[in-house]
């Protein structure tokens, strides 16, 4: 039974996700069986095949039925069903129309609509690729009318869609896994995601703004029927989300909160005659869509549990942590840089949830140890380390060569997927630096609010959060300007490099770096005047 069920699982994952994750499971299985062939710290005593099968199948805390697998039954099933119901009720079109309110009369309107719609969709769905597909479909005509380059438009859509996985209250599957691994409140994860989500959004909007300014694009006409009256008319669709937040805050189970939200969505839509479905069959289609989207996510989660079990049996996490600690010494910058690269590479072949599970098992102990050496309290270091890993596991969705959100965007904009992934990485280049801004120092952890809240007073935590949020936001804007090649005027290449280097200083939680960056920012954004001609 164990052997047969494991093979069926790997076959299913291969069909839905591809060969890399099943091959990764088999690699760790071979390591358990033949680890004695290796030398040094990574060598271990071999395990019998029958023992491994028993471990994978018979134990309730490991293998096929372990803790991470329980996440699918405890959390994912409810949120995926809610996402399917929302899609079947056609609420996405209303969300897109509401998002268009923020872009009236603006040349950079298409990018704004894409980003805002992604935030709204992220409140209902935690799937980056699915939300990318949706926002790409609704925004493509606007980009074409405005004159955006197709690859830039596809890159903006791909990067925006991925923001769904860090948008409360419905985060991606990674958040639920983190809740189980750390035994913390889901509300904590939602609060910690607010800062990175906001900075991610700032990076997208800033690049979009400077890109439009550089090209001199003109505003396009929008349907005037979608005004503020439209927003007031359909603002009730956000009420179920408030129910979820309130129930979680008051300590009720997430399953109860989501089930009530689903029923409330259905009731509200059927009360409104303008959007009422013609047939109850729509709800059945929504349920089917929700369960079908659960299959690949749940399968990946179970595979991640298999990998985690196999790693724990050999003591690989401790061995890897020792090696990483030896490489980085006491430098948290080196440790976090190595971990970020490792997580991004890992995420290029496997889904974000599995990537986070593997990366957290292998690298979190080392980051925790180095962070504590650098003066970060243990609880704050633990929370910030796992948020760091979760954040970079999400970024793998828009990091070439394998970027699922870029593939989804490319399928709509009819662009080449790999090149689209490159543009998606370029569009919000600051997003790759945001993680370092909350892991390097204790002051930096304030960007997540909770790590500092648990180790100091609420007043200090909130004040520090606001200060860091402003500093890193300025850094994100400056980096976006350097990437787009435009500040108050088109920038030469060397000017873009100089601005980008100084912008990096604002991501590092150090007042001296902030002061060093100030003169460059004042020059490029306040003093430097336009040159004659367009671009050099």
Textual characterization of the structure:
- It is globular, with a radius of gyration of 24 Å.
- It contains 25 helices and no strands.
- By secondary structure, it is mostly helical.
Key attributes of the depicted protein:
72% helix; globular; 0% strand; 536 residues; disordered C terminus; mainly alpha
Shape: globular
Structural class: mainly alpha
Low-confidence stretches: 531-536
Q: How much helix is in the residues?
A: over 70%
Please outline what is shown here:
This protein has 536 residues and is an all-alpha fold. Helix content is 72%, strand content 0%. The chain has helices at 2-16, 20-34, 49-58, 67-88, 91-99, 109-124, 128-146, 150-161, 173-182, 186-215, 228-234, 239-249, 254-271, 281-314, 316-328, 332-347, 352-373, 378-395, 404-413, 417-427, 431-437, 450-453, 458-484, 493-507, 511-527.
SSE diagram, text form:
Elements: H1 2-16, H2 20-34, H3 49-58, H4 67-88, H5 91-99, H6 109-124, H7 128-146, H8 150-161, H9 173-182, H10 186-215, H11 228-234, H12 239-249, H13 254-271, H14 281-314, H15 316-328, H16 332-347, H17 352-373, H18 378-395, H19 404-413, H20 417-427, H21 431-437, H22 450-453, H23 458-484, H24 493-507, H25 511-527
Helix pairs in contact: 1-2, 1-14, 2-14, 4-9, 4-13, 4-14, 5-6, 6-7, 6-8, 6-10, 7-8, 7-19, 8-19, 8-20, 10-23, 12-13, 14-17, 15-16, 15-17, 16-17, 16-18, 17-18, 18-21, 19-20, 23-24, 24-25
